[in-house]
């Protein structure tokens, strides 16, 4: 009876030790994945900030005016070209 109890305790101890080893390994794997995801998030945040700055630059009114003049040949109408229609 004592031998059976000792065997059960040794087996339980080994199973518990293997469970701890597995849990620590899983923790390390998940921690590495978390660090990689944090790095990817930080890179995406940097890209997002750069894109916001680029969008703000492209949408400035003087930039739009410059593109309209240079690429599209647009200009403000002269006063003699302006027609006012009244009801």
Automatic annotation (TrEMBL):
Its main location: membrane. It is found in: Cell inner membrane; Cell membrane. Keywords: Cell cycle, Cell division, Cell inner membrane, Cell membrane, Membrane, Transmembrane, Transmembrane helix. GO terms for biological process: FtsZ-dependent cytokinesis. One of its GO terms (cellular component) is cell division site. It holds the Pfam family FtsL. It is a single-pass type II membrane protein. The keyword Kinase does not apply. Essential cell division protein. May link together the upstream cell division proteins, which are predominantly cytoplasmic, with the downstream cell division proteins, which are predominantly periplasmic. Part of a complex composed of FtsB, FtsL and FtsQ. Belongs to the FtsL family. NCBIfam families: ftsL_broad. This is Cell division protein FtsL. It comes from Novilysobacter ciconiae. The gene is ftsL.
């Amino acid at each position: 009876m004592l031998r059976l109890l000792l065997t059960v305790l040794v087996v339980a101890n080994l199973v518990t030790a293997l469970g701890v080893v597995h849990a620590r390994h899983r923790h390390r794997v998940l921690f590495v994945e978390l660090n990689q995801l944090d790095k990817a998030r930080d890179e995406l945040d940097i890209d997002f900030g750069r894109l916001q700055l680029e969008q703000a630059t492209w949408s400035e009114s003087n930039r739009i005016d410059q593109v309209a003049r240079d690429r599209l040949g647009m200009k403000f109408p002269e006063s003699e070209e302006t027609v006012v229609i009244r009801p």
